[in-house]
Amino acid sequence: MAAELKRIRRIATEEAFSIPEVAAALRDVARAPGNSLDLTLVTRIYDAKVDDPQARLLPRLLDLEGERLRDMDQNGVAMHLLSLTAPGVQMFDADTATELATLANDRLAEVIRRHPTRFAGLATFAPQSPKRAAKEMERAMKTLKLNGFILNSHTHNEYLDNPKYFPILEAAEALGGCIYIHPRAPSDGMAEPFREYGLDSAQWGYGIEVSTHAVRMMVAGVFDRFPKLKICIGHMGEAVPFWLWRLDYMNKNAQNRGAAPKTKLTPSEYFRQNFVITTSGQESHLALDFSIKALGIDNVLWAIDYPYQPTAPAVAFMDSAPVSDAEREKLYHGNAERVFHIAAGAAAQA
Ligand code: 1WB
Ligand code: MN
């Protein structure tokens, strides 16, 4: 590691955890009848046979202060911005989801209180009950001092452009809390072609699910109603940056034939105004360079995707990225501090 990089503060922004109560509820979901595409992965992780390599993920999701901190120390990572891992509470009934979201947020706040320089956290909420979700969002930021929100894409096959969720968007905007839209598997209506070849999750399905979510919000005009709302998406923007030109062109056509509502701005304008992206699990310098040029250096944040992706290559990727020192500071911590209200602080102890 170069000497000057030893002193850089690395804040990783898409870092997953769970709590035993949510893991148990997901095991029950795995054992109940159902056809959701998420069940493939939920079964592998939460109801795994002991010889399944994916079974190793659950202890690493439940651990916060053991192996995780050692992994951070070994790799010079100052901080994990933690979030309850996908699918979060979004496969449960409204009451269970609301209760477990509160519990997960309390646990998250406790571990941050014990390690305020090592952890920050995104609050979970239960979209199944939008009004109660908005209350929990306020408690999470004002009382628990959490740093923003995590949403694992669709809820019972519905997306944030649905007006039933507007109380959630109103709360996020008023609180200045960015909503990180993390993947889960594609919703029922587009699930079938993803059932083969392992396409259900991180290989391809996750990106399609979240990019579709983001595009729906932009073309529906959600950001005309909530112009200060901030959304974060991972995996180098789930390919949306690459699509901006064509989105603008074809959205205009769709508007002109009455298929899409008229909006104040174009998709690319909303994307630059209302979105930031992270590099989670997408370690291509070419894609990074393109994204910085497309969105601006202030809109790209570093992430590892722990424990689903290894830390060392994610650090090596950003340490060696072809950017200036000032740009690397923004990518590694400056943008995260601004977007997620994280106090300035020190690099990891060498
Ligand atoms: C994987 C990746 C699984 C992610 C996940 O389960 C999440 C995987 C919730 O690679 O198996 C992710 O966040 O990218
Ligand atoms: Mn992730």
Descriptive notes:
With 350 residues, this protein is an alpha/beta fold. The protein has helices at residues 3-6, 20-31, 39-46, 57-62, 67-75, 94-114, 130-143, 166-175, 205-220, 222-225, 240-256, 267-274, 285-295, 311-319, 325-339; strands at residues 11-17, 79-84, 119-121, 149-151, 179-181, 231-233, 275-278, 300-301. The protein has one domain: Metal-dependent hydrolases (TIM Barrel, Alpha-Beta Barrel), CATH 3.20.20. It contains 15 helices and 8 strands. Strands 4-5-6-7-8 form a 5-stranded parallel beta sheet. The protein has a 3-stranded parallel beta sheet with strand order 1-2-3. Helix 8 (166-175) links the parallel strand 4 (149-151) and strand 5. The chain is globular. The protein binds 5-methoxybenzene-1,3-dicarboxylic acid and manganese (II) ion. The site of manganese (II) ion (MN) has 6 residues, from strand 1. Residues 14, 16, 182, 280, 305, 308 line the site of manganese (II) ion (MN).
